[in-house]
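2.7 Reproducibility. Because tokenized structures are sensitive to small changes in the input, we list the exact sequence used for Transferrin receptor protein 1, including any N-terminal residues retained from the expression construct. No trimming or masking was applied before prediction.
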Amino acid sequence: LQKQTLCDPEEWTHAQEPLLHGCCYSPHLYHRYMLKSSRCQILMQPSGNLWNKFKCIKMSNKKMSFSNFINRTFASDSHRAGSPGDDELGNKVIRKFKEYGMDTWTDEHFVKVQELSGANKVTFNGEKVDLYGFLSYSAPGTATGAVLYAHYGRETDFSALRDKNIPMNGRVMLVRAGLNSFAEKVLNASAVLIYADQSDYNSLGSSTEIFGHVHLGSGDPYTPGFPSFNHTQFPPIESSGLPRILAQTITSELAMKILRQLGGPEMPRHWGTIAKLGGETDMITVQVNNLLTEKKITNVFGVIKGFVDADRYVVIGAQRDAWGPGFAKSTVGTSVLLEMARSISEMKNSGFKPRRSIVFASWSAGEYGSVGATEWLEVLKFFTSI
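Resulting structure tokens (single pass, no recycling of outputs):
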């Protein structure tokens, strides 16, 4: 698979706006995936004449406010990947596709993800705090080390620490969310604590728990390169992008409490804050109790068949799952997907004949690293290579 970034990391960090109830998401980039075979393309929007006709039919419809456009019923229940809420939302999408006159089908996979077992814990200066946010695919266990603040956990941030001759071996890094993915922050540490700073995420409360994943890659990391139909069918291998260290999210409130108590050298001035980086006596213990489990996830599809090259198709997809009830990303994406499906179906009913088939896809397990979309692509790659 070839992957092309559609959004600059820094622009995406400032552009995203978490609108969630009790959760926020890691700042992953949206990507465009293209199978090397010319039979399939997954794009963020249709192109050429189709896009112009789509805009025309939308302009002819009654204008809607953003609040009316978004289907809020999609955010009413928890719909974590593989949960009953996720399945119910998938059924709602199928019913809409059928209402628009499309042929529909589903695609099931059995994938391995981590879920929280009880609560993870952080102990600092004798105070133990239970944590209910977590990072899937973290290494489980317990780690103890001296806290070291590393800004956003980028390579440039670690270079600034090295320039100050600060020892980093065995340290527990405290870093801010944003500017790079959670998985990239975990690459440069022995253990990592990640928080959403209020200056970056002012719409989140200081006690908001954060969720995400730390797999440096996409898809099920326990079947890399293979579709996850059944784990017994393929060799038991793991993705090289799985971290070997502990990673955990903490609230902004807890992060500020830790930062105020740190000693050690001053932070670099260009980091924009006046505080200490942490001394070698500022010990902290991190306990991660994530439990690896297998889930059945379901991708949902609807198709408008092409009139010339029906076996060639454009795929327009959106993530369906979310860590909680939520609103951002999954609800907005699903609403836009269905509105595009409705509008293009109306175009077809009005005489428009697409040359190629148009497939609308509702992906599950996007929060774990585009798992549903990647597994579907791996199915295509696997069977087209036989």
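The chain is about 25% helix and 25% strand.
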